[in-house]
Amino acid sequence: MKSSLGALPRRLAPGLDWLGDCYEFEFEGKVIHSYHSMFLVHGDEGSLVVDTGHAKDWATLERQLDSLMATGIAPVRWIFPTHSEAPHSANTGRLLVKFPDAVVWGDVRDYHLSFPEHAERFVAATVGDGLDLGRTRIILGEAVIRDLVTSLWAYDTSSRTLFPGDGFAYMHHHEAGQCGLAAEEMPDLEIAEFTAIFAEYALYWTRFTDLSPYVRAMDDLLASTDCPVEIVAPGHGSPILEPRMTVEKIKLGMSLGAGAHHG
């Protein structure tokens, strides 16, 4: 496994950067690419890291953070892992060392077990709580699709971005030259099929559950006028820049995954 350099970070909107380390692996005789994602939301008074990336990606993530901070972005004051699974929280301790004035914010009930040396820097927050970064605000929301009971989603009011962790996510691969592209920038991306695969392996419970309430909740979220969603930034898979079009394919994939069991 080796990294693909240069595709990220990418600015998705003013005040929002996508970070990560694309890696290459062989599958069925072909070299393909994939990654976990981390996002940086920056306001006038402070910046917030959404998810921490996988532990293996730290060297690249640190370089990306340094390059962004060198442009004058406000210092990182908050770290928000959507949940405590390794691809979303493994670099929490490293980020706390790198940014000594930062705190971890969210459902932090179990983080002291993994990072006991930083226990005093975990700040509990729940659905409806918010942070003022200066020029933008982060609001925590209920996770419609939960990977863990501690999962929370977040919303950035300035870029109108939803951060759903493993929700709205899909397992996908891409080819050389496609690293750092949004979902809609890869017209051949088989989103429905890859969503079904992701659900089978990462959200296996969806195969035994009536998904209609979850689909309705996703529709309601995207239809909200209070928090209109223009970007979806999941932890896996490329960011979604045209949610209403792409999420229809994700919903189809969820139903395919469920149908694989019931059919």
Descriptive overview:
This protein has one domain: Metallo-beta-lactamase, Chain A. It has helices at residues 58-69, 86-89, 92-98, 111-114, 191-202, 212-223, 243-262, and strands at residues 2-4, 10-13, 16-20, 22-27, 30-34, 37-42, 47-50, 76-80, 103-106, 122-124, 130-132, 137-142, 152-156, 161-163, 231-232. The strands form three sheets. It has a seven-stranded mixed sheet with strand order 2-3-6-7-8-9-10, covered by helices on one side. A five-stranded mixed sheet has the order 11-12-13-14-15, with no helix packed on it. A three-stranded antiparallel sheet has the order 1-4-5, with no helix packed on it. It is 27% helix and 24% strand. It contains seven helices and 15 strands. The model is unreliable at 1-5 (pLDDT under 50). Helix 4 (111-114) links the parallel strand 9 and strand 10. By secondary structure, the protein is an alpha/beta fold. The termini are far apart. It is globular.
What's the topology here?
Elements: E1 2-4, E2 10-13, E3 16-20, E4 22-27, E5 30-34, E6 37-42, E7 47-50, H1 58-69, E8 76-80, H2 86-89, H3 92-98, E9 103-106, H4 111-114, E10 122-124, E11 130-132, E12 137-142, E13 152-156, E14 161-163, H5 191-202, H6 212-223, E15 231-232, H7 243-262
Helix pairs in contact: 5-7
Give short descriptive properties of this protein.
alpha/beta; 7 helices; 7-stranded mixed beta sheet; 263 residues; Metallo-beta-lactamase, Chain A; 27% helix
